[in-house]
Write a structure and sequence with these properties.
The protein is 32% helix and 24% strand. The chain is built from 8 helices and 13 strands. Strand 8 and strand 9 form a beta hairpin.
């Protein structure tokens, strides 16, 4: 996982709580609560730190807000929270989070359906049905990317069928690095950003563009089957 620090990471600390087990009853036992963490380093580094500390269940107490942000700081905070959910999902960590949708973007649940499903979905006309669809259709590896020798590939099943995209242009790979934890849209090569946006591999939030797929850290079956 790329753990390079970005301005988004530096400017948006997050508070989370963590436990050693997935099961709620097990988490109530003595010694299972790891504590409350203030995350101030790069998101990838913080996801690694939580994993290495033994976290298998992580709670984000504040909803992730996809409504129109009230300034750059709010956009950075949302993108940082999404990055944490994505990076922990890639490790098969149980993430307890809530999501507030922008009513102007009704497809957002499908765009984010490769992530650990949220507990609560705000701003959707039929939230319970949307959440049930998300939970029933979720599995690790639903939308991921990987490096190859001289190319990188995205494998996307968010829409039901497998869509595979392969790119060997160096500036496309550079664009992924820039977008991984959020970047101002104007700082990313326009052709790469446009192509990624068209395929809904990038989510735009305020002035920021954010890379949606994850690099999976834990395979549920042999990698050749993925």
């Amino acid at each position: 996982m790329d753990t390079a620090s970005t301005p988004v990471d530096a400017a948006a600390p997050l508070n989370v709580s963590a436990w050693r087990d997935y099961d709620e009853a097990a988490c109530a036992l003595p010694g299972m609560f790891l504590g409350d963490f203030e995350l101030t380093a790069a998101t990838g580094e913080e996801a690694d730190r939580l994993w290495e500390a033994g976290a298998r269940r992580v709670l984000l107490p504040e909803p992730v807000d996809l409504t129109e942000p009230d300034g750059p700081a709010a956009a950075r905070r949302t993108v940082r929270a999404l990055s944490l959910v994505r990076d922990l999902t890639a490790r098969a960590v149980l993430v307890e989070w809530d999501l507030r949708l922008d009513p102007a973007r009704p497809d957002d649940p499908l765009v984010l359906s490769h992530l650990q499903p949220p507990r609560t979905l705000y701003g959707h006309p039929d939230a319970e049905a949307a959440l049930a669809t998300w939970r029933n259709g979720h599995y690790l590896g639903k939308c991921l990317w990987r490096n190859g020798p001289g190319f990188f590939q995205i494998r996307d099943r968010r829409w039901g069928n497998l869509q595979r995209f392969t790119a060997d242009e160096p500036h496309y790979r550079t664009a992924v690095d820039a977008l991984a934890y959020g970047a101002p849209a104007e700082s990313v090569p326009r052709d790469a950003l446009d192509d990624f946006t068209e395929e809904r591999l990038v989510l735009h939030h305020g002035p920021l563009a954010w890379w949606v797929p994850y690099r999976v850290n834990r395979w549920t079956q042999e990698a050749m089957a993925i």
